[in-house]
Design brief:
By secondary structure, this protein is α+β, with helices and mostly antiparallel strands. The strands form two sheets. Strands 3, 4, 5, 6, 7, 8, 9, 10, 11 and 12 form a ten-stranded antiparallel β-sheet that branches. Strands 1-2 form a two-stranded parallel sheet. Helix 2 packs parallel to helix 3.
């Protein structure tokens, strides 16, 4: 399959100074065409045939993988919803459809519907804009400002999101009074005066959560007495390896020293015998 070829494109972009530019996957799907040359006669051949059931299983996994592993992917467009009629059914590309021309849904339609409606919008590792689809903001207004990390920020009275990672850091400010921060249902003691100042006046980077291994974090931020505040970006980190490697190294050193002491004591005992 060629779905992961985006990783090679990403490597080339990073090597040539485009690390801050996102990749949009404009055509994504699996081809469930019939394995019958009497039906599909396209001179272009097939695209890697799967069954309709396999296509239905693979597509949600593709979206989930991009969310969890590829923070540099900005958009994935399913290709395609339907054709106006079935006069192209002898063409291999026709079978990427999600529904038939008469809107009869195929298995991939049902699996994507379940994936979208049952999934809790979650921010995974990466830097996310405050206007992300996975962030809910009340009375939100988008403001442009080149000095911001992402060129614009959201001004809102309340903001909520769910993240999955070891660290969650929010760049926020544009207010004199600290908003109330609730993490996993508990009001946090974090206030702007305790945060790390950003380059812009009255803007701070607030670390809302940190843990040894990734975990689900639900965050709600509400302005003091309904006052609006600004949010530039939400950074979600996965520092599992950085957190665990020192522990593993310490464990290995500890076990090695213990074995050394035990072996040395055993040798001394044998000398005495």
């Amino acid at each position: 399959m060629t779905y992961a070829r985006n990783m090679y494109i990403r490597d080339m972009m990073v090597a040539n100074g485009d690390a801050n530019k996102s990749i949009w996957i404009s055509e994504a799907a699996w081809n469930a065409q019939p394995e019958d040359p009497d039906i599909v006669t396209s001179q272009y051949g097939n695209f890697g045939i799967v069954t309709e059931e396999q296509a239905a299983r693979y597509m949600p996994l593709a979206y989930q993988r991009a969310q969890e592993e590829w923070p540099w992917v900005g958009n994935i467009s399913y290709w395609f919803f339907k054709r106006p009629a079935d006069y192209e059914k002898n063409q291999a590309f026709y079978y990427f459809r999600m529904v038939e021309p008469d809107f009869t849904p195929l298995p991939v339609y049902d699996s994507m519907k379940q994936y979208i409606t049952r999934k809790t919008p979650t921010l995974y590792a990466g830097v996310h804009q405050a206007e992300s689809w996975a962030v809910k903001a009340r009375s939100a207004k988008l403001e442009s400002w080149d000095a911001m990390e992402l060129g614009q920020y959201v001004e809102t009275q309340q903001l909520a999101f769910t993240a999955y990672g070891t660290d969650v850091i929010v760049k926020m400010g544009d207010t004199d009074l600290p908003p109330t921060v609730t993490i996993n249902g508990n009001v946090a003691s974090t206030v702007l005066s305790d945060a790390v100042p950003a380059a812009q006046a009255n803007w701070y980077r607030v670390r809302l959560a940190t843990s040894l291994v990734p975990q689900i974090v639900t965050v709600s931020i509400e302005g003091f007495q309904g006052e609006a505040f600004g949010v530039d970006s939400i950074a979600v980190l996965d520092r599992t390896m950085q957190n665990i490697l020192p522990l593993i190294a310490g464990l290995i050193i500890g076990v090695g020293m213990t074995l050394f002491v035990v072996v040395s004591a055993w040798r001394e005992r044998r000398k005495r015998v």
